[in-house]
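Saturday, quiet lab. Running sequence design on the structure tokens for the scaffold JK sent over.
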């Protein structure tokens, strides 16, 4: 998964007005307590970040 797809999925599930704020402020346990932005900066693959987001948002299996 490319980083652009990660951002697109975040926007789809969280909305245009909120997804960037959420990515900057929500700490994900599956990413060691990092935010999406921190994980990207640390070089975590987008696919792993998305799995953590998917789990945290309790999205349906089809969105995994």
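Result came back. Writing it out in full:
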């Amino acid at each position: 998964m490319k980083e652009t797809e990660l951002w697109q999925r975040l926007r789809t599930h969280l909305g245009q007005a909120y997804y960037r704020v959420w990515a900057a402020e929500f700490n994900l346990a599956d990413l060691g307590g990092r935010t999406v932005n921190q994980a990207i900066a640390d070089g975590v693959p987008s696919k792993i970040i998305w799995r953590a987001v998917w789990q945290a948002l309790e999205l349906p299996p089809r969105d995994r």
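Notes for JK: Residues 54 and 61 are 9 Å apart (CA to CA). The radius of gyration is 10 Å. Ask whether to fix the surface positions before the next round.
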